[in-house]
Amino acid sequence: xxxxxxxxxxxxxxxxxxxxxxxxGDRVFAGARRPEACPDLMQLAQAHGDRLTVLPLDxxxxxxxxxxxxxxxxxxxxxxxxxxxxxxxxxxxxxxxxENAWLETFRVNVIAPRxxxxxxxxxxxxxxxxxxxxxxxxxxxMGDNGSGGAYIYRSSKAALNAVGVSLARxxxxxxxxxxxxxxxxxxxxxxxxxxEITVTESVSSMLKTLDGASSGDNGRFIDVDGSTIxx
Length: 231
Ligand SMILES: NC(=O)c1ccc[n+]([C@@H]2O[C@H](COP(=O)([O-])OP(=O)(O)OC[C@H]3O[C@@H](n4cnc5c(N)ncnc54)[C@H](OP(=O)(O)O)[C@@H]3O)[C@@H](O)[C@H]2O)c1
Fold this sequence. Notes:
alpha/beta; Rossmann fold; 6 helices; about 15% strand; globular; binds NADP nicotinamide-adenine-dinucleotide phosphate
């Protein structure tokens, strides 16, 4: 049984991570900005109260991150899934820069994932084979950017990738792996109705990648099929 902490569990990919990890018997700490407004998550908490702790977690809030760390306490954390993310304003047209929205997107997608890692470093250090997963996106890849646009989202995920590589380098001597994951184009509120795969498929593929992770995957930008994405 692993202890797993997940951010952004109100819906979409985060909620599905909670479902699949509980189904396989893991111990889960699930953060959501407003848990009381998430009936699906609260239902899971009722059914799995002994293995699921749901807590209020806006990842940009220092008080919430401190509460997360104290709720997890001195338990070793085997896996931290930094999933919470925002797309930013749509449309994001050249000639109409929304500076505040850009900064807010960076707060959630880039700065907060590092801060959540910082909050849980003591618990990660206690685990036998700890791993940090960052939910990035192929849209953060320069090599894959054939269509342009999406300045805010693309740049935030590219910056998250840089954070991931530095975490991988800084923490490798302590045996903590950092994996940078693209979940596929997934049918969620963010992915929209034209997306290619379901949350079930996306999360089960990412869990397969995480289960098989080794030192060779540290700092790797990994597609949902396990292949490497160009930076
Ligand atoms: N869907 C795709 O096709 C796709 C593709 C590539 C990458 N991704 C990435 O995968 C991750 C999950 O995406 P998704 O498709 O599940 O998106 P989603 O359906 O829009 O869900 C986003 C989740 O992040 C949470 N969140 C947003 N801001 C937060 C904050 N400040 N603090 C805590 N939680 C916050 C949301 O909570 P609220 O309900 O409170 O808003 C929600 O739980 C994101 O990082 C996204 O960029 C998704």
